[in-house]
Design goal:
Layout lengths: L10 E5 H14 L5 E7 L5 E2 L1 E5 L15 H14 L1 E11 L7 H6 L5 E8 L2 E9 L8 E8 L1 H15 L2
Parallel strand pairs: 1-3, 1-8, 5-6
Antiparallel strand pairs: 2-4, 2-5, 6-7, 7-8
The structure holds zinc ion.
Length: 166
């Protein structure tokens, strides 16, 4: 079996805490689609450490569509800049539908950004998947979601702070 080619996005680390928050926001939006932005530290390797919930601006059929306003997008870019993070992608939910991208999702996928989809069944998050349209021109493909323990990061930061004596 061949290993992944150079530059192939094999997976992305997500803080467990962020995954939990996505699940809760998706459940809260049910039976409408929920959505939000995914951010993380700049540079490589990419890791999703922050989630900003967004209001679904779709007024007609929010059960099967979601819309993010240009204003929301600008606010996210500002927030990312202020906190030293970068925008890594967006998530949205599929109420009572599988966590698979629809033709609409594909047509709205942004190059280099993750499309994360959460399936919500009867009000509870049931499945989550991630896809990416690589900037390299490669086809829209699945990205493995790797759960990264937020607690490890927090405790190592705490140790560093104590050691510094500040
Ligand atoms: Zn969708």
């Amino acid at each position: 079996m061949m290993g992944p080619a150079e530059g192939t996005p094999g997976g992305m680390d997500f803080d467990t805490d962020v995954l939990d928050r996505i699940g809760r926001a998706a459940a809260a939006a049910y039976p409408s689609e929920g959505c939000g932005a995914l951010l993380g530290p700049r540079g490589e390797p990419r890791r999703v450490t922050e989630m900003i919930p967004l209001e679904n601006r779709e007024k007609g059929t929010p059960q099967v569509r979601f819309e993010i306003s240009p204003r929301d997008y600008m606010d996210i870019e500002l927030e990312a800049e202020r906190s030293g993070l970068q925008l890594l992608g967006f998530w949205h939910s599929h109420p009572d539908h599988p966590a698979m991208p629809s033709p609409t999702d594909l047509s709205f996928a942004w190059e280099g950004l993750l499309t994360v989809i959460v399936s919500v069944r009867e009000g509870g998050p049931s499945d989550i998947g991630a896809w990416e349209l690589p900037a390299s021109g490669a086809p829209f493909g699945p990205v493995e979601i790797r759960r990264a323990e937020t607690a490890d990061l927090v405790s190592s930061l705490a140790i560093g702070a104590n050691g510094g004596g500040a």
